Amino acid sequence: xxxxxxxxxxxxxxxxxxxxxxxxxxxxxxxxxxxxxxxxxxxxxxxxxxxxxxxxxxxxxxxxxxxxxxxxxxxxxxxxxxxxx
Length: 85
Hints:
With about 80 residues, the protein is an all-alpha fold. It is about 80% helix and about 0% strand. It has helices at about 5-15, 20-30, 35-65, 70-85. The longest helix has 30 residues, at about 35-65. It is elongated and about 70 Å long. The protein starts with a helix and ends with a helix.
């Protein structure tokens, strides 16, 4: 949100006649992370961990002279797993 939009929102909120309990509820809603934010963070963390593991596997394979799985082999493996479910 832009500063202008935030100022307009603040002006609007100040114009409301909110009881103390209503203000506390609103403050809680503004401060608590939303379920979408949490899910997004969890997904980002999972992707980061997966990519880190994959990179470490590539590095280890190179050090040890192992042949890595091709993309086609990987996709075929995923399709086989999906078909088994």
